[in-house]
Backbone:
């Protein structure tokens, strides 16, 4: 009998404890931020908290899709999120974002005009770029004896089993589409099928379809060529000087991670203050130095060491990205991309 | 009294297992239309195409292979642990479990470091003038990853059953003239069967739906059912198709378990009197 | 000789299980962020680890949720296993099959369906929902661990206890539970292990700043897992190892004392057991 009541007591206290913990800590105004992991200099958060007398609750996610499902379901409300550009277009189409008032974010004037006013958000009414980059080829200079400048090289049998592709539908299919000279956002099923064929032909040459582990593999010299993003490439080059990154001449894709405010945010003012704070040159500088990806903030870029700010790999010239495209959300057409991709993988 | 101890669980189960399952069924059996959703079998229909069935076949094959290997390695391990080779059984038991407290992603990345062309194992092998091991990005690597991840789930239930097998029964069998082999096959193994069944269940089912292992150690070359489902839910946004695939799998497995239970019988009676 | 072979087998299995652990511990001292290159020996990750507020808070949450959900799941699960063991026919089949569902379902399906359930019930995602989700996927594993032990149980034990005058609760507590204890312990261990390593279900059922270690680590994957995590894992592992050694040494000492006759009555009972076996 004694044991039974002790049991009950234990259970009750556990449940009570957990209930208590769910409802504590809500005195100061709070800002809920949802970002990629390890994607900000965390000291910055502490400084923001002090200066604006707010509490910052910081959650992380590992992919855009995970974040999208969480936001869409409405189970928790966030004030600032950092979607990639294609996810942003999707959220815009589904009316999931709040408008931002650029007047409340004066520091936006530091942002590179080339990267503002994009097709997906012409007047930056909903987003501001946070970090950006390109899609290209990372290669090991000691293992190649020719100039690497074209997407063709990823299909060169000379490099059989030395090629890393991305386990990401849009990016790998995108590379094939770029090689064929088509748009990376095509909904033409014929073009899509061609790209699929190209990828199937390539499969025997591919060592692996990697996600994030690709950069470490390149650093370790496990492969010669890799389809990758400039941010990853800069990281890898930092660890292994034999590596280099190039934007193929046929064209590239520019990616952005932007800051946006989801609908349902309970702290619009705080969100915009945070966005303004992040665009202060010194703060943007610290973030780009911590993360290692390119910043769209010109004032911050000017404060970078010379080798970095003039590094064409990280900060391409105008000609390099003249006809670069951005990914946009494809809606129903995505099913066809998925089908093509599944066929390639199951080949 | 013993029957009523079920109550808390039944309530929990209904709320957190049955209800969500109905949600999944709802998604599986409906398709979104402009005006809402209609009942349809289209999601299931899509699944029965050769390409997807091939994915299912491969997943089943790899899961079976992994389960068998887990059993072959795990059963003897459980036997040794339950026997008298070690005096501190609890410690050995814990030592089996502790690696699993290290994050799964980290451990899988560590396997990459071990199995790569210039990875730790190959560096060791080449320094000993032995041939390289190139199993990364092959099915073998995926199986290795699965076995590594699920082995403790096989060992633990078998061990917990073996450790309490009535020693008197074993002695009696010996007294009645059976040699060690027969004692094992006719007495010990049948008595350990409940543990084996649990072990196989806890290995086979998750092995079927895993996706990280095939992605990292298989180099994305092997789409398994788990990858397919994850893709549907997250990348494509087709929850209906994803749910339908899950439902097909669940039905398949429950069916095969029902068939198996005919052979097992209602209760594995342990008592001798 | 046989004993040596048996032990070697286990050591081999352990070598297999611990190889990756050794690798990740070594890399916690790597002076480079990348797994692909060895940059020299350093302790800086250990220092940076303790300054990282996200990692520290997710560690705390992970431990709390792990322990709590494991305990609650074990309680509910053990009671359930006992109930299932005494059921028959359709009821038993039905409950067992439903129990298999969380084990069988792909994690993403369980995760999203639970998330929808919580949102639908208007419960804000956070500690509570995370806890509920963890208990839910832990219970089946507890049941699967305890059930075999129940099957192994002598079915007349319970009746014998009742006949000898104990109440049902006493019979349960003093007779049944000790017999199935290895199964309960196994279930508890499994539940705890599953809980601290879970990512998918945790990610979709939490919110409001509650993050587990797994979520923090997976979120870092895109940028490359920071060796701070390796440092944390090394510390955790060393801690557990030390704990095991301490417990081990204590046990050894106590057994030595016992042999020297301080617990003489125990010796008598042991020889009684030897003569009449488990009854």
Residues:
């Amino acid at each position: 009998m004694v044991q039974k009541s002790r049991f009950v007591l234990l259970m009750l206290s556990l449940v009570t404890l957990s209930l208590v913990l769910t409802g504590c800590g809500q005195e100061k105004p709070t800002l809920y931020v949802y970002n990629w992991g390890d994607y900000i200099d965390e000291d910055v958060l502490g400084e923001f908290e002090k200066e604006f007398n707010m509490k910052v609750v910081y959650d992380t996610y590992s992919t855009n899709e995970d974040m999208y499902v969480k936001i869409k379901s409405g189970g928790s409300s966030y004030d600032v999120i950092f979607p990639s550009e294609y996810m942003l277009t999707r959220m815009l189409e589904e009316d999931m974002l709040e408008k931002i008032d650029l007047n409340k974010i004066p520091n936006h004037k530091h942002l590179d005009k080339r990267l503002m006013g994009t097709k997906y958000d012409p007047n930056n009414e909903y987003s501001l770029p946070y970090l950006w980059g390109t899609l290209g080829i990372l290669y090991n200079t000691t293992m190649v004896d020719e100039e690497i400048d074209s997407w063709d090289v990823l299909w060169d049998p000379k490099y059989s089993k030395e090629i890393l592709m991305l386990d990401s539908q849009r990016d790998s299919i995108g590379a094939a589409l770029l090689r064929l000279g088509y748009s990376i956002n095509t909904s033409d099923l014929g073009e899509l099928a061609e790209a699929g064929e190209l990828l199937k032909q390539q499969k025997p040459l591919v060592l692996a379809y990697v996600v994030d582990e690709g950069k470490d593999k390149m650093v370790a010299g496990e492969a010669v060529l890799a389809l990758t993003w400039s941010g990853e490439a800069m990281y890898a080059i930092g660890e292994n000087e034999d590596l280099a990154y190039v934007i193929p001449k046929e064209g590239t894709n520019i990616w952005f991670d932007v800051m946006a405010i989801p609908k349902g945010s309970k702290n619009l003012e705080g969100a915009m203050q945070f966005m303004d704070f992040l665009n202060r040159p010194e703060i943007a500088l610290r973030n780009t130095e911590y993360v290692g990806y390119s910043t769209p903030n010109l004032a911050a870029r000017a404060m970078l060491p010379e080798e970095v700010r003039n590094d064409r790999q990280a900060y391409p010239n105008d000609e390099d990205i003249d006809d670069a495209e951005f990914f946009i959300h494809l809606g129903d057409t995505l099913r066809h991309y998925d089908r093509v991709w599944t066929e390639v993988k199951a080949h | 009294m013993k029957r009523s101890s079920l109550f808390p669980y039944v309530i929990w189960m209904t709320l957190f297992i049955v209800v969500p399952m109905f949600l999944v069924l709802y998604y599986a059996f409906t398709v979104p239309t402009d005006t809402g959703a209609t009942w349809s079998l289209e999601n299931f229909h899509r699944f029965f195409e050769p390409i997807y069935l091939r994915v299912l076949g491969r997943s089943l094959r790899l899961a079976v292979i992994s389960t068998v290997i887990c059993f072959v390695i795990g059963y003897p391990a459980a036997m040794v642990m339950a026997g008298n080779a070690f005096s501190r059984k609890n410690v050995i038991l814990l030592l089996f479990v502790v690696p699993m407290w290290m994050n799964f992603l980290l451990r899988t990345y560590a396997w990459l470091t071990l199995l790569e062309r210039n990875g730790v194992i190959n560096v060791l092998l080449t320094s000993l003038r032995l041939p390289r091991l190139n199993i990364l990005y092959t099915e073998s690597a995926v199986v290795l990853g699965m076995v590594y991840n699920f082995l403790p789930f096989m060992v633990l239930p078998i061990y917990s059953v073996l450790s309490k097998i009535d020693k008197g029964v074993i002695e009696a069998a010996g007294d009645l003239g059976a040699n060690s082999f027969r004692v094992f096959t006719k007495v010990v193994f049948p008595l350990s069967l409940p543990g084996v069944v649990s072990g196989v269940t806890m290995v086979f089912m998750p092995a079927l739906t895993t996706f990280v292992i095939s992605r990292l150690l298989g180099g994305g070359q092997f789409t398994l059912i788990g990858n397919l489902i994850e893709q549907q839910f997250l990348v494509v946004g087709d929850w209906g198709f994803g749910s339908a695939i899950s439902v097909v799998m669940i039905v398949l497995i429950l069916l095969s378990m029902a068939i198996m239970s005919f052979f097992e019988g209602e209760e594995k009676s342990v008592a001798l009197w | 000789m046989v004993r040596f072979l048996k032990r070697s087998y286990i050591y081999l299995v352990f070598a297999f299980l611990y190889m990756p652990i050794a690798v990740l511990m070594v890399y916690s001292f790597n002076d480079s962020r990348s797994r692909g290159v060895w940059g020299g020996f350093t302790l800086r990750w250990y220092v940076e680890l303790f300054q990282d507020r996200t990692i520290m808070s997710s560690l705390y949450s992970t431990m709390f949720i792990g322990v709590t959900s494991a305990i609650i799941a074990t309680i509910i699960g053990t009671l359930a296993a006992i109930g299932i063991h005494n059921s028959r026919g359709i009821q038993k089949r039905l409950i067992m099959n439903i129990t298999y569902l969380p084990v069988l379902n792909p994690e993403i399906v369980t995760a999203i369906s639970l998330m929808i359930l919580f949102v639908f019930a208007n419960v804000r995602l956070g500690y509570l929902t995370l806890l509920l989700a963890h208990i839910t996927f832990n219970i089946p594993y507890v049941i699967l661990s305890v059930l075999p032990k129940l099957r192994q149980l002598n079915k007349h034990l319970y009746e014998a206890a009742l006949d000898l005058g104990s109440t049902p609760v006493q019979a349960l507590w003093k007779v049944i539970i000790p017999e199935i204890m290895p199964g309960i312990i196994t279930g508890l261990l499994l539940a705890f292990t599953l809980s601290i390593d879970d990512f998918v279900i945790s990610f979709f059922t939490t919110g409001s700043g509650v993050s587990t270690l797994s979520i923090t680590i997976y979120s870092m994957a895109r940028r490359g897992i920071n060796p701070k995590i390796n440092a944390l894992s090394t510390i955790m592992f060393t801690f557990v190892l030390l704990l095991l050694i301490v417990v081990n040494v204590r046990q050894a000492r106590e057994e030595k004392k016992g042999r020297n006759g301080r617990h003489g009555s125990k010796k008598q009972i042991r020889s009684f057991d030897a003569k009449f076996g488990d009854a």
